[in-house]
Structure formats: structure tokens, C-alpha cells
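Sequence only, no structure available. Ideas?
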Amino acid sequence: VGQKRAVKQLQIALDAYFNDRSGATEEIAFPHTLMLGPPGVGKTLLASIVAAELGSQFHEELAQNLLTPGHVHGVMMMLEPGSVLFLDEIHSAPPAAFVTLLKCLEERRLFLGGDRKVVELPPFTLIAATTDAWALSGPLIQRFKLILQMEHYTADELATLIRQRAKR
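Reply:
I predicted one. C-alpha cells follow.
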């Protein structure tokens, strides 16, 4: 219900992704995606739908829980090729986590421990959501190829949602 513009953008991106990878011999990840909008408009649900459409594992994390680079490393080590990592409220991640996350997105590698052991990350998709777009840094926003603006529901859409929930 609702979010017609965002859903249409995702449909186009998914169609392009499947067309691009039809002849590919290597694993290609869906583009990193940023969802902007108020709370309660379906960002998490839409991210899980994208993962389902891709046939991918869906990992959901609250960004404020990524307190240290080690926490980011732990989340990244769980990813398998094609996984979708959903970071909710990405604006609330601590600065140290942001730096590590940016390196993961830019280089698709982790640098672990004092000896700086390098771990290659599989192709993955980060879908991030925020209610406070102004709190995101320019370098982080630039890592996202797809940016979706979510809207408040109209009165008719809210009525539809309420009827659906009441039936359940």
C-alpha cells in the first residue's frame, strides 16, 4: 500500500539488475540503496521484499548497535554472496562504525587486527534507512546508487492499511 514512486523505482532497478546479470559469469550485487523517509512508512518491509525478489539472505541490524569497528566486522563476516544487509536508522551509527562501513562499501574488504589481515567481502547489497537524511555525510550518501524517498501515507492508504490489519 502506498509508496508508488519508490516501488516503481525499485521495479525498474530490479529489472535492470536481472537484465544486466543474465549473461554475467561472476556474482553481481544489487546496487546499494538508501531509503529516506518518516517512521512507519514501510522502509523495512520494502527492504525485505527486495531481498526476497533477489532470492537473497536478509540480515537486519539497527545501526546504533554497531558501536565499534569490530561490530561492523562481525556483521560483514556473516554475509554470503548476494546477501542483503539492512541497516535501519543508519544516521545513528557511531563515527567509528561509519568509517569502517565506508571502507567496506568502497573496497569490499575488511582489515582485521594489528597485523591488518585482509578479508575479502563477497558481493553484497547494503540497504540503509533513515528518518534523518540531513545527519548523513556526503561520502556515505555517494556510496548509494539508488536513493528512494518514502512519503507519508494518504488518508485512503491509511484506511486500506487499517482494514488489512483488522482482517488479520
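Residues 44 and 151 are 14 Å apart (CA to CA).
Hope that gets you unstuck.
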